[in-house]
Amino acid sequence: MFYGVGFLKFLALGFKLVKMLRSIVVAFVALVSLTLANSLIYDGRAPFSYTIEDLDNSLDPYLSVVKGSMNASYYTQLLGHSLNATPLWSPNPLSPIEQPMTISIDNTSIFVPGGSTPQNGFRRTELIAQKDGNHTALNAIADVGTTVFHVSIQEDLEKPLNMSHEYQIVWIEPNDGTHVFEIQLGSPFTIPTGAVPVSNARYLKVRNHALDLLFETPFTSHDWHNFAVQIDWTHLTLGVFYSTNGEPLMAVTGLVENSSASPGAAGQGDYHFGVLKLPLANPNETAAQQGDVVHFGIQEGDTEALTYSGVFIEGITGGVSAGFGKTIAPIS
Asked: Whole-prediction pTM value?
């Protein structure tokens, strides 16, 4: 059978297009597979299929019981496509893989743990990482060896924080109530209350178990602030990675001692993110009451919020996920 030159050129072009499309597909699949390093332990990036009913019922990936008297979905809003999450973990910015969440507090945000004494000194709403309906079992696999805890934070301009107060917004809490590390905003709680807000109140601050400052950066508006905290649970050290928006994560500290944290199972704890607002000391209360920040102090009762995305935990096999398919070496 005779084929004209034009037909043969058309056929060759067709084969080239098929080959090109195949290369694009392979590259896209590779990019998706490299979005995170290989050792994902927990994925707290809310899928678009996650609903307020899931949230109210504490379905994976969150335990949503740390809140006030209203349903969890009253305090935590799933934002769908109304706001883009941090771009680090979406290979295609036009098809994000997660929806951000705004976590808020108001004057009803008084947590009553286990039916005991209400925590009137705090205003708090938090989500706790859980997997297979069990946050404690997650701790047993996430809080061993060397693991990395990721989170991205953005300001809610319509519900700003009161920077005269101290806010704890990300931490790991063992049973003794201490924090393996924490990220803070605002002015530190003091007795008596000094001149507030302090000069670095609008800085995000990463602290270790002993509350030593490891890293701080301005909490600029409209930006995603991306953090990853590397924890060596055996040798009791920390390291911090940070970036903004779509910039890949970079190490901003070396290895820092965290020796005041408890080793082994006693040092393992829940991964919290949200808004915990400490009070101001009330000069009309007794010294003992002023020191009991959980149950006493001054709170204004305003509605305040922060927005979160990019929450996950990974091991360091294959490196630390830095964003857009890149991995970087652990801090050593």
From this structure: 0.89
